[in-house]
Amino acid sequence: MGGGARELAGYLAALAGWVAALAAAVLPQWRQSSYAGDAIITAVGLHEGLWMSCAAQSTGQVQCRLHDSLLSLEVHIQTCRALMVISLLLGFFGIIVSVVGMKCTKVGEEDPVTKSRIAVAGGVLFVLSGLCTLAAVSLYATQVTYEFFRESTIPINARYEFGSALFLGWGAASLSMLGGSLLCCSCPAKERRGQQYHRQPQPSTAREYV
């Protein structure tokens, strides 16, 4: 795979990861009510996310309520909120920076060494964005696991399990880090050596005929 094709593939993967991270941050299905145990399944399914909690009726009606106070939220929710916001900001700047540094764009093509460095910087931003998403999703999943197996959570049907947004977040983190790693493969040093090689003056042969 050529350098330009590799950068384009990395950019598309990272962009898809950023969109998936945005969807995961907005969705309320970070955890959902569990139906484990012998109790009768209720007609109401509960979902909770970083910004709201929802109750889905068996008739298909869904009612959602935003979290009222930031200070009243649990620490892990506040931490996950901050990590997801940082992740989205890093990914947004990575999208802009990578477009400038990719070989397939015309911006700054007169200086390919600096252009490659900009592409590497965009890749680093995408990798950091993926790490923040991974940290947020894993932290929330750890808390859900701890509360599920905590003996004081009674009855068992009052416990929560992993929601679909967690799996979407893990996928988003993987795509962002994969795409950022591909963008980081642009090596300015190789291009610099190539430029120096091509710029070497050719020896003049005019004196041979004098």
Count of beta strands: 5
H and E order: HEEEEHHEHH
Look at the structure and give the CATH class of the domain at 3-27 and 70-190: Mainly Alpha
Give the second-level CATH assignment, the architecture of the domain at 3-27 and 70-190. Up-down Bundle
Task: Enter the CATH topology name of the domain at 3-27 and 70-190.
Answer: Butyryl-CoA Dehydrogenase, subunit A, domain 3
Beta-strand portion reads: 5-15%
Strand order of the largest sheet: 4-3-2-1-5
Q: What structural class is derived from the secondary structure elements?
A: alpha+beta
Shape: elongated
Distance between the termini: 49 Å
Overall helicity: 55-70%
Q: Sketch the major β-sheet.
A: 5 strands, antiparallel
**With helices defined by DSSP (H or I, 4 residues minimum), what is the helix count?**
5
Description:
By secondary structure, this protein is an alpha+beta fold. It has a domain at 3-27 and 70-190: Butyryl-CoA Dehydrogenase, subunit A, domain 3, CATH 1.20.140.150. The chain has helices at residues 3-26, 75-101, 112-148, 164-183, 188-198, and strands at 31-33, 44-48, 52-57, 62-66, 160-162. A five-stranded antiparallel sheet has the order 4-3-2-1-5. A hairpin with a 4-residue loop joins strand 3 (52-57) and strand 4. Helix 1 (3-26) packs antiparallel against helix 2 (75-101), helix 1 runs parallel beside helix 3 (112-148) and helix 1 (3-26) packs antiparallel against helix 4. The radius of gyration is 25 Å and the shape is elongated.
Task: Give a nutshell description of this structure.
This protein has 210 residues and is an alpha+beta fold. The chain has five helices and five strands. The protein has a domain at 3-27 and 70-190: Butyryl-CoA Dehydrogenase, subunit A, domain 3 (Up-down Bundle).
